[in-house]
Amino acid sequence: MALAALTAAAALAWRLLQPGVELATSGPLTVVRVDPAQAKVTVGLASEEKTAPRTAAEWCRTKHLSVAINLGMFQNDGRSNVGYCRHGAHMNNGSWNAYGAVLAVSATKALWLDRDKVDVKKATAPYDIVVQNLRLLTTQRKNVWAANGRKWSEAAVAIDSKGRLLFLFSRQPWSMIDFNAMLLGLPLDIAGAMHVEGGPEASLSVHAGGVDFDLAGSYETGFVENDSNRAQWPIPNVIGVAR
Fold first, then answer.
1. Residue 89's Cα: distance from chain center in Å?
2. In whole angstroms, what is the distance from residue 192 CA to residue 133 CA?
3. Residue 239 region, left (φ>0) first, then alpha (ψ -120 to 50), else beta?
4. For residues 146 and 150, what is the distance between their CA atoms, to the nearest angstrom?
5. What is the DSSP string of 146-185?
6. Which of 40, 56, 92, 182 is most buried, by the most CB atoms less than 10 A from its CB?
7. Collapsed DSSP state (helix, strand, coil) of residue 25
8. Measured in whole angstroms, how far is the alpha carbon of residue 131 from the centre of its chain?
9. Using 50, 70 and 90 to split pLDDT, how confident is the model at 8?
10. Using an 8 Å Cβ cutoff, are 72 and 62 in contact?
11. Tens digits of per-residue pLDDT, 74-94?
């Protein structure tokens, strides 16, 4: 679907899945909106569980999650997030890099930071979940991507001005400059967004409120340049919502 058509048909119909968790779609985009004051946001980390990577669907079953999406891209060890990542006292990756988006989650709230604007080490210290990823949109709604000739199926995590998290998935491949523009054209009230995975490893599972699906990406420039992948790939780290 053309970008102009998506932004023109901006109204979203939200379906309640469980307290604090809602689902909507807009063209190829699937959105799960989570209020951390009402729903328990948690993570599944293969490094912490001492297990092999699992598909998002398997993470839902083993961790009793109603929703799961990629927590971020991972390193060659098949465990460590590319950016900083901590869950409580468990350190998945203790090194900060230049990636610009940081999400921190406590028992009742989410904090979103631009890495280059704040002392993130100090600001995130009280939070139970902290993850750093590639920035898509700043907290000021600025699109930080330029055209680069690359596109992929996309999994992203964002926050709105009310502190609600948005889990975003599109199997349809996008350049990130166009994906960001599409997000800004929808009534999502986004106040920051991060890329958490692209191509066939991009995943979103939802099993709540009578909705059951396990979405998988496929196309990625320079990797899988087709729409043939139909199954979720095992991934080491997810963020999701407890049932």
1. 22
2. 12
3. beta
4. 10
5. ---S--EEEEEEEEETTS-EEEEEEEEEE-HHHHHHHHHH
6. 56
7. strand
8. 11
9. very low
10. no
11. 999 999 999 999 999 999 999
